């Protein structure tokens, strides 16, 4: 259950994943921030070893062992942008190869060796690098730029901002599963949580029927409340699909919605509803939510029969399903007028068509003596890989200048702002002051 709903979970967060996120934050602060506790831990545990090379031991403190446990997961996502070069040459990840100590063969890798020791004025000392590193690594390093007037900057690579937050650490380090169609469908935002959670249990066959309780070693006499005078064991598929009551309920709504009813498992019936092509957004909502409401009302009626000694009634279940569905439609689409009969309501929903609005969009020429700058920027993922571009035209519509650029990882707003700045600078460089 401790997975996002689109991955088949209930949206809960695992305590282990949450603790790992907080541990990652501790390791990030220890590795990248200057503090008294960092100096204390380095003096106590890292006199001879770099923190990345330090190993876990039983005589260490609980907090330090906690950071040692998370270190292997976090370090691959920590990179450094070079400045003064006051980071470890061997153990900090400042190249695409990770810590260079992993590439060292028969070479000492002391933690005190700094990157700045391989600077030669504003370039790299390539002869010194070639004595200790393979040629392909040296060829890569010589193209790395640095500014000795700036501080070395740590980068948390999964986040576009470059800074580690508990949110980004949780998303990066948590256990993941593939997205599922059923997981994305049962969790409709207008359905109560209890119904979606119940449907997740139905699809996993985890509903507390008599047969399910017997699996835990509880010996009980099982009888389905749908047939008070006959002996049928109660299990999920029988209660929600095969029983006489369930078939009457499903038959009513399948006939009214034009969906064929087969004698099959409840999962197959639900999937048939979900895979039915809809003609508009209202019908899509009904087809997605109605199977969940049907199963929920059958289960509620069963519980009333089991614990309140009431008789199961398919008429009552149908009435409650229609009532809840109408409430959902009115909440989602308040402007829609519902009919008294369900069949009339669904027929009207099926005939709805989206209103098509047309609007003329065209480019207007600037006044004489002016130029017009049109720019745009976008980001894949927002934030994500981003780019922008722009055009400059005169009052005749003739193209004067154009540009297109890649901006790295950023949001759409930042990409548009950078494109605007680039366009304004281009106009100024060309001597245009009257710009629209």
From TrEMBL:
Q: Which residues form the RNase H type-1 domain?
A: 367-436
Q: Which PROSITE patterns match?
A: RNASE_H_1
Q: Which GO terms describe its molecular function?
A: nucleic acid binding; RNA-DNA hybrid ribonuclease activity
SUPFAM superfamilies, alphabetized: Ribonuclease H-like (SSF53098)
Q: Which domain of life is it from?
A: Eukaryota
Protein's recorded name:
Ribonuclease h protein
Taxonomic lineage: Eukaryota, Viridiplantae, Streptophyta, Embryophyta, Tracheophyta
């Amino acid at each position: 259950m401790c997975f996002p709903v689109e991955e088949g979970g209930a949206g809960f967060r695992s305590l282990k994943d949450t603790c790992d996120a907080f541990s990652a934050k501790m390791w990030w602060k220890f590795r990248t921030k200057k503090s008294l506790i960092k100096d204390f831990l380095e003096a106590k545990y890292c006199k001879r070893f770099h923190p990345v090379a330090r190993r876990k031991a039983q005589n260490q403190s609980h907090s330090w062992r906690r950071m040692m446990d998370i270190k292997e997961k976090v370090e691959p996502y920590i990179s450094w942008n070079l400045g003064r070069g006051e980071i470890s040459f061997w153990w900090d990840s400042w190249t695409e190869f990770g810590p260079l100590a992993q590439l060292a063969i028969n070479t000492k890798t002391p933690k005190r060796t700094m990157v700045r020791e391989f600077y030669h004025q504003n370039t790299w000392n390539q002869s010194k690098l070639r004595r200790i590193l393979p040629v392909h690594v040296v060829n890569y390093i010589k193209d790395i730029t640095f500014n000795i007037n700036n501080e070395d900057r740590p980068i948390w690579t999964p986040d576009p901002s470059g800074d580690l937050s508990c949110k980004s650490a949780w998303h990066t380090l948590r256990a993941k599963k593939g997205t599922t169609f059923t997981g994305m469908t049962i969790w409709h935002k207008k359905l109560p949580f209890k119904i979606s959670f119940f449907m997740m249990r139905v699809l996993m066959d985890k509903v507390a029927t008599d047969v399910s309780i017997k699996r835990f070693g509880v010996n009980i006499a099982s009888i389905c409340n749908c047939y008070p005078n006959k002996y049928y064991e109660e299990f999920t598929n029988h209660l929600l699909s095969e029983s006489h009551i369930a078939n009457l309920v499903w038959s009513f709504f399948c006939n009214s919605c034009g969906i064929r009813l087969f004698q099959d498992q409840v999962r197959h019936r639900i999937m048939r509803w979900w895979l039915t092509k809809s003609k508009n957004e209202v019908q899509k909502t009904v087809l997605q939510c109605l199977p969940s409401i049907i199963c929920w009302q059958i289960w509620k009626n069963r519980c009333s029969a089991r614990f309140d000694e009431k008789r199961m009634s398919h008429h009552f279940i149908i009435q409650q399903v229609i009532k809840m569905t109408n409430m959902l439609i009115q909440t989602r689409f308040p402007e829609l007028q519902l009919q008294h009969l369900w069949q009339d309501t669904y027929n009207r929903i099926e005939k709805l068509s989206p209103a098509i609005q047309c609007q003329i969009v065209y480019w207007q020429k600037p006044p004489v003596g002016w130029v017009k700058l049109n720019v745009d920027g976008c980001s894949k993922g927002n934030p994500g890989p981003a780019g922008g571009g722009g055009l400059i035209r005169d009052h005749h519509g003739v193209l004067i200048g154009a540009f297109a650029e890649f901006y790295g990882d950023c949001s759409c707003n930042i990409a548009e702002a950078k494109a605007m700045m680039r366009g304004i600078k281009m106009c100024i460089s060309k001597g245009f002051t009257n710009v629209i």
